[in-house]
Design goal:
Length: 233
């Protein structure tokens, strides 16, 4: 049934975003715990989640910060992880590009994997939605995802403070990345990209400041693109 009205669109966004909490909440807690383990104060950890609002980039930055990498390397690496947001933005422009500047700024801040995925499906399903309805739906998804991320980051901080330092939680970071990456390996191109990136990362592990990771990521993307090109030829 088609969604009609700004309020109805907003609440549909809330309902569609709710299932994502099953993933967002545990990762928010994990980030809070790991940030505490790394020595970040509660305010800094919460500010990190509020300002960045990107799990993969935050985990990447946290790992590099623990390795004492230069700030510029931390920033570049986090941006590289989040390059997909540029594609999300381009995909959302036909649907939300006519919004006033301040609303576009809000949408840019709230553009996450979950808001993009839900909105792209909804807009394709109901192309007759008005601009206000589309924005309301987008806000509906974000209004349940973002507070959940913030709140459970704080829960993770409080949990991490209660964990004795000798327990060590460093093992959780690679597990978190595996959990995020595993479901994305859906095609031969994805698998090729992952294999090349992992192999290159291991071979380049001696490069200072984890710069080998950036090179490995580039090689992985090139390998995936080439496999996809050959597959579609």
């Amino acid at each position: 049934m088609a969604v009609r009205g700004v309020k109805s669109s907003y609440w549909k966004g809330v309902r569609d975003g709710a299932p994502f909490l099953l993933v967002v909440l545990p990762f928010g807690m994990l980030f809070g715990v790991l940030a505490t383990e790394a020595g970040l104060p509660m305010f800094d950890t919460l500010a990190f989640s509020v300002v960045v609002v990107a799990g993969a980039a935050q985990f990447t930055a946290m790992q590099l910060m623990q390795d004492n990498a230069p700030t510029v390397i931390v920033i570049i690496s986090a941006l590289a992880v989040n390059l997909r947001m540029a594609m999300y933005s381009a995909a959302m422009t036909p649907h939300l590009g006519e919004l006033p500047v301040w609303k576009r700024a809000v949408a840019a801040y709230l553009l996450l994997d979950q808001t993009y995925a839900s909105s792209a499906i909804q807009y394709e399903r109901e192309p007759d939605m008005t601009l206000s309805e589309r924005f309301a739906y987008f806000l509906g998804v974000a209004s349940i995802i973002c507070p959940g991320w913030y709140g459970f980051t704080l829960v993770g901080v409080m949990m991490g403070a209660a964990v004795p330092p000798e327990y060590g939680l460093d093992f959780a970071l690679p597990i978190a990345f595996l959990a995020m990456i595993g479901p994305a390996l859906r095609t031969g191109a994805h698998v090729a990209a992952a294999l090349v990136a992992v192999t290159a990362a291991l071979l380049l592990s001696v490069v200072p400041y984890n710069l080998g990771m950036l090179v490995a990521a580039l090689l992985g993307m090139m390998a995936g693109a080439e496999v996809e090109r050959r597959t579609q030829a």
